[in-house]
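Q: What does the assembly look like in three dimensions?
Context provided by user:
Components: two
Sequences:
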Amino acid sequence: MVITETSADEVVRSSREALGLPLASSTGIDDAMLAASLRRAAGSLCPCSPSTLVNAVLESLRHLSKADGDMRERIDAAAEALIIGGDLLELNQVTTDDPDVKGTWVFLAPPGFVVRPDGSIFLLGVAPDEITPLPASLSARITYEGYARVLNPEPAEALPAVLRELGLVGLSTSAWLKTPKVESATELRDGMLRRLEGQPPSGTVADVSILHSTRGVG
Amino acid sequence: MPMPLEDWQRRLERHFQQLATARSNSGFPLFALEHDLTASQLEEIGNQLRERLGLGLRLEPHWLLWVIYATELGYDYDGGEYWHSFEERTPRWSDKASRNQLRDWFSRFQLAYHGVTPSGTWAGHFPIIAWPITHAILSKYLQWQFAKALYDLRYRLIGLEAMNPEAVGQLLAANAWEASSRFQEFLQQESLTGRIVLALLTDRSNDGQSPIYPPTLQRLVSDLERVQSTGEWLKETRRFVADRLKGAGRGTTGRLTGAGVQSSAPDDGDRASLYIRPTLMLRRSAASTWSAVVDIPSFAGIARLSPEYRKFLTSTRCKIAGTGDTWLPKGWLLSNARRRVLKSWPTAGTPLVQFENSKSVVDHLIGSETRLSAGPVWLCRLGSDGLAHEIAGRIVRPGRKYILISEKAELLSRHPFLTPCELDCNGVSAAVLSMPESVSNDMLSGLQHLGLHVARTIRIWPAGLSGRSWDGEGYSEWLTTEAPCFGIVHDHPVDQYGLSLNGGSETVIKAREVGFPLFVKLSRLPVGRHTLSVRARRAYQSSSAEGIVTLEVREPEPWLPGTTAHPGLAISLEPHDPTLDTFWEGGVEVGVLGPAGHHITCALSLKNASGAELLSDEIGTFRLPLTTAQWQKQLSQFVKDEDRSWTYLEAASGRFLIKGDELGDYALRLERDVKPVRWTSRSINRVATVRLIDDTGRDEAAVCRFFSLLRPAEPVYLDTDRLLKGFPAPTPGGLFEAGHGDFLDTIMVSVPQVERGFQGLGIEPDLHDLDGDAVAVTLILDLLQRWSDARLLGPLAGLRRSRVAQRLLNRLYSHLCGKRWADAETAYVSNPEGDNELRQLERLVGGSPGFPVVLRRDYEKMEGDTGAGAQWYADVATRYQVCSEAGLSEFALQLASNPCHLRRLPKPVLDRLLVEIKANAVLLRGARLLALLAASKEQGFASIGLPRWKW
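A: Here is the predicted structure of the complete assembly.
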């Protein structure tokens, strides 16, 4: 058991290695590293709020990059991309313990995949203690496109069948790209009000003061 | 010209003799599969053996070839019926030879060449087929599961080189508890499975001898690699084990020498790897009110320590202290981390997890590991997400906000810097602590009085990789596969830092300028709790400030497909691991929580013994949350379907699937309980045929009886030989019972008479055999238990069994409570809404008139915890001078609600209680009134009239 002093660059390099990211292609904290860090943090923190996830990753990356200033914005964007892409699920009105208490939290999506029209495979979801639930021969073939992880099948390789056999859930493109149902403005407002009523109270919000607390909005 | 069998016999005798001699020093016994024959040679030998058998010639001269022949069939075994396929592939075997002959030849092989002897409970129950299947080393149908089990275990296989085969086998058996029951039985042969693991994953040998003959091992590996997934799993496990042997982790976990799977109390190494420490969190329940929530980690780590613990956890209900009296389903702690709201603060030193039954070793562990941290105050830091998480180190920092909890309200009220707030939890008070940017001396001393420490301005944090469970003040979790890095920064001059791990030698690092961080990296750490001590020093000061970082290190948990590793879909099943029959008969309570309104789909697939899919149907689509009542209603519709009932007859296994789309899937393997003596059933052109399978290996025949649905109390003895070949179930069906030694199996087959239209569907059991006062009550209880325990097969089987049970119950209560009472029960069951019927029951209870009135008014007290309900009934019975013995009152309730299970009581005890209860019929009638009132509120009341109280 050894303790050694190390540099910020070496911390980044070592973290990239632990996150299964390529070392040669990047020397710094790129989008792939932010996404991988968020997935790893989500593995232990979820269900939680997006800000909890962002704060955890932000703290671990502090002082590691010269561009610390915009790090929160970059991590925020990465977290949003993971929710949009399907690695994380933002669910509202969720009951996990007390049936009377519902909340809106970020959950892990189970490991899954989507086959893109060009045959490449978009990997989704998080296995809490593992970078990926794939065996090393497949993990080594993952390529990183921004926040996304992509696997390209080899000629004559039935990759979707292999992934299904490994237990990953195959989502159809239509299910993955499913958009929320079209709603009128009134329906949207009513729905949001219902969600708001279902939320636990926020308590005092720092730096916000309500000027006319008795007056309605709108 | 094929080689004669005599030559093959001699050649193989020589081969095994040489192998036995070469292996004599290693201690590894031989397997018949280590024969070194090619597929074509095996085919040639098989053809000659069959030809000789057909001609009726002596088989004994070629006994070794028969051993190999039977072993090869064991290697191809599909997990179903060994003898059935053996006899199909070996025509005239049953006429010319016997199973016992084959067993004798395997024994001869064992003696001649130090062959392996089957061991474990499974081998004891299946004493003949255990030989060819054990000698096949790893039958094909187990290979997929074996490769998967090794893959799932890969993180725990460090130190494999140093382990003996038994220890490896124990480790595998203790960790494969999600596997099928047959695979778990296979794993009982720990020495055998350990050898296979060592042979597959290492190049270890004993005295130059590999644990398995290399060409045979190569055959196993080739077969494993033939299926892509098993090949990948095996490759990955081999790679991982090889890497870890080369890496720093080697030899660091001494506990993997098998100690971790003993039944004794876990040692410190095990304890360190358990992680069952609950964590405390507060969340708002109103604008200024908070709720306390405890997060209970999964107990899967404890289950892995030994099969004994696993059995205990899957068969015992638990409750969480401070969260109410609700018993949580068996196996609840194994699924995944769960949260519960604390309604009252647990008493100091009380374990949070309490089990219904006691188990000293587990209690000891739970007692010490699942308590909240010691008081008198608990500190939670308010985060940006509005949740407050406990800070175990009780360190506060300027500018931050906290909530302080204490059992002593006065402790919080005496400090002006605390603002009281509401905590929705009995037994504690709470206050908000807003730390100013600069802390006055008065406040400092007040904080110290509360047991809080103000942090110094040297910050340490996990760098690069965020720390799991990092509480911001020094506590974090890591995996053995990770090398933790930390950043250290100070806002006042420091000259150097001294760092040491676990009190070892100090590493001195020169500090940087104020505000400039330095980073340190630790090597990968073994499983356990580690402390990193950081001392900040100034050159001219003798004293130094010290900070402690606690690192809990554990092995990674591999992801298991078909499990929800996140509680977005919180699934509860009771029982936790049902058989296919229990599931089909509606004996599983399913509940699912998740996003309100989200849809989930429940589906069931059924497979026959060779793995072919017979059915794959949706049970239903539900909106969350799914309650047990909704589930049972939908399932009863599903199983009523006649086509499905016929398909179910042939099913050997099933898979229950909950599909939550993006929330993930949950899969549960369902298997039939395979007993050494058992019934199987097939439908041939919708004619149900039952067949007896007897794998007990005993010379005498099993005793078989049939109880017709029309005469459920009158057994007819059946010819066993006929049953072994297959027997069409007579219309309208009935109960088949087979007993052999200690083994017993019963099935109820329902055969509706379709030609008689609706009339043919119903039955009216004739129970005149039970008429007369001389009939013993225990005989009726026996019949009830027999009919209740039987597996159900065929259309309408559930309904018809209920009819039989209903009639038997009526006879039972007629004997014990009188015929008028039994008639009144029948009237009430047929019209539970009828006021007259209920009044008649009340009138007939007897005793003080107030007694039934109170029972009718307060019967809901029996809902939930039956322990508390029994106490209430005993109090009422005492008050109305019906009975002053609490034990007899509880017996009355059990007899009134679940009479079947009373046969488990020792006979003298049961006989005495039945005499006493017959002498106090008022007590039993009162209990029956409660049971009927409770059952009338449940679904399916009319079918049987018993409530679902849990005893």
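Follow-up: The longest strand of chain B covers residues 613-623.
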